[in-house]
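Input chain follows. Return structure tokens only.
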Amino acid sequence: MPRLRRKKKRRKGMEEQLASYADYIFEAPDLKYTLSGIVVISAVIGLVSFPGSWRSELFNGIVLLGVPAILATFLTKPISEIFGKNLTYNRSALISLISLIVISIGSLFTGLTAYVTNTPYNYTGFALALSTVFALRMLILLGISINSLPKVLIPASLQTLLSGVLLAYFVRDTGVAIDLIVSSVIFASAAIVFVKYVDYPMVKSFGVSSFDFVQDFIGHITEGSQDMEEFFEKIGESIDAPVSVLAFRRTDGTLKATIVTPYVHPGPMGEIGGGNLPAIVAGAFTDEGTVFVPHGTAYHDFNLVTADESQKIIAAARRALERMTYSELATRSFREKVGNTKILGQRFGDSVFLVSTQAPTSTEDIEFSVGFTAMAEGRVAGARNATIIDAHNCTEPFATAIEPGTRDSYNIIRAAANSSRHLLSLPDSPLKVGVAASPPICTRLEGMGDLGIRVAVVEVDGQKTAYIVIDGNNMLSGLRDRIIEGLPVDDAEVMTTDTHSVNVLSGANYVGQKLDCDLLVETIRKLVDRAIADLEPVTAGMDIEIAEDVRVFGSHKIAKLASTANAMVAMSGAFAAAVIVAALSLTLLILTFV
């Protein structure tokens, strides 16, 4: 396999951004292991930091550190469920363990200070650690469960409150209690300031909280939750999207194959929005023969906000099928090349069917306006309908999308115009079509979606042309050529659906990166042989219908989301450090005079 060539990288898109955040999502350890860790750490810290005999040290450590952590574990989940979501006992225990480690550091520091200065043990450091834990638990619970500052206060305060009550009982020092109250107020206020500051860009730009997005993202990654769709629906906008349908009908009137090309983007990820659009569309046409759902020309701004929006695409395709007129004539296929662009085209009746690729140049999606203009050029040339498909079959990580005004965009438009004119001048002949399909040869994580591989071979005037559609998100550079080489046809093109059902844990999961490429090549060769053996006379019809009021992310929303997320991440670290230092300084200053 040829190695990926390095090119200038673009800024990460939202899918890549989300995938990079997924690297930080991990499964919380089992409850019993976390609780065991809490007991052991509590005992050890009690022995090495608290004053008194070893028995009293051990007892104090378990009671002051372990008991509040364990109680907080079992109380935080049910209380959080009243106000939020996503919190399990495993996660609750992990939060308690992290908080215990922070408290232990404060206790160790206090004990070390007392030992070095030869002064009595002072519980002020312990109280400061409890206050820090209060703020820390607020931030964690806001991020994963409860997006409400008033509502998060009760579950966030549990470990601090329980430890504080036990501390006041054992120490019986009102000064320590005052220290704990004052420092807790300061650190909780600092956490609130931090939350408001970090959340401001998302609220300002989109009118929704970033913590809602984080919670929904974690829920999707860990539990397959669809709640992210609510977030996307809030920021989305409505468009009218073309849906092209090319159908092949047998002589008995039944449909042999149907090619449905929606001009929306099958993203953003997994089952969210239009992530699994190709499989949803194909599943809706069980009586229309073998259904192909290649990638229309659309970028990430045209992601469906919810999976339910796919029903509007399906309804438009049905309307196109219902009014379809068929012809028994078609032309031989023809390949036009302009610059990096290669278009494989074929005319069916009075409509042209075009498949565009930039291979071997690595590219991302083709912007909607570029494809729409290319389709218009086909109609200007004289075609009743013109469909252009983005083969989406050659890429590398962070390849560049084809945007309006670029050289590649003009090449696509010119190639579409030239190809349409040439196809309209070619003579007609009767056509035959054969189809074959294979289920996925690997898992989604290895780069293949539910539709697997589908092949249609079109024969006109003795010429055989293979159209191969793989349910995946783009293809490793060089693999397309390997697949086409040696196929028993006169011409062929390999397409991917651009399904984002394969993109949950990775924004870059291309066909050929993880699966067995030799197996893929051999499977496609066998499918082409089967499709040739399946050739029979058909009639063909093409029509385009508009899916109205389709809710998508909207113009430039992806770039805006990505830049807002980058800004939040960039400023959160520095601001968090500043807030902690300010809160600690203010606390120490106040406690000095209290």
